[in-house]
Specification:
This protein is of the alpha/beta class. The protein folds into two domains: 195 residues, Thiolase/Chalcone synthase (Peroxisomal Thiolase, Chain A, domain 1), CATH 3.40.47.10; 148 residues, Thiolase/Chalcone synthase (Peroxisomal Thiolase, Chain A, domain 1), CATH 3.40.47.10. Helices cover 40% and strands 22% of the residues. It has a five-stranded mixed beta sheet, sandwiched between helices. The protein has a four-stranded mixed beta sheet with strand order 8-13-12-11, sandwiched between helices. It has a two-stranded antiparallel ribbon with strand order 2-3. Helix 2 packs across helix 7 and helix 7 runs antiparallel to helix 8.
Length: 368
Amino acid sequence: MNKEYKLDFIRNHMNIINNISMFFPVAPISQEKLIFLLKNKVITSKYLNRTKEDIEAEIDKYSVNSSKINQRALTTQIKKFDELMAVPEICDEIIYGLLERIYQGKKQPNHIEYVTSTEHSIPTSLQRFLAYKGWNNTYINNFFDRGCAGALPAIHNALNLPYATDIFCAEIFSPYVDLIAQNLAQKPNPQLVIEGTLFSDASVLCSTIPQKNFKKAKSNGLELLAYNEIIIPDTHKGIHFRSSTDKLNLSVLPYVPAKIKEYVLDFTKELCKKANLDFEKEKNSFVYAVHPGGPKILTNIQEEFNLPLSYFQNSIDLLYNYGNFSSPTCPVLLKNILENPAIKKGQKILAIAAGPGITINGLVLNKI
């Protein structure tokens, strides 16, 4: 079997992404209002051990302001739930509600890849939902605690399966913002101010179908050309996330953006090599779906690739319009590419994200 025939054979037995839908638990709220609400949560906290002036000065200095993020979707009315519920339980209930909306009127899925870093219950919201629906033979594959990069390995896995598969990504940060407020009420923590003004609630559903069914559907799709994943050496302490009922331990160490910058170019060259592409020769022709993470990470990648910032405008716009919603972000970038008529069939797409580990994950996709 020659190389080209083998590649065609593999492609014809892989899934294709044919639809991506985004769902918010609530309508987005302006960043200015959310920063005001965070200040108010801190100042009115029963754990208050600081002056109002000190708190406001810290939040004004370190928050991700409205020049970088215009609005975010945060479920601010948490008190509609039982006040005795732990933070993970609140996340679970919001995710369960999203599942009810997403699958309303839909047929039972064969297989669901479930991606989240903010749900930690057993059984999961997805398991409870499937049991309620009587969909007892739907397969589940979990991609938990992969952070911003979580969707990419899930997409890689789903596209290698021989049957239709859904990829469901959901991140609910709102209850953690309440914990951030409790912590800030007691002592300064600039990193928590950043996290409390960066993240957003969101979910996304990517639907994939077998190649043979896609040909009949007559719609746009994304096919997989290559996948790559590495753990950057000596960076396992770079991103840390632990939560409980009344405490939050969330940290992203200052060296994280620099480490990603140090390794991302070689990583991307290897990723493209797996797709029989030369990154340096092809980089100007790619459409990019790079997880913005935060403004510094995106700028570092742009500098390392030696490309104009305009190549990453879709990532900049997404961060500005919605904030960082972690794992659903890359699928939403791909949704925009899939639905954009100006991006023609045959266009190569490069998707990159980083998460705890520190792990860098990447996909090369082809629009068909």
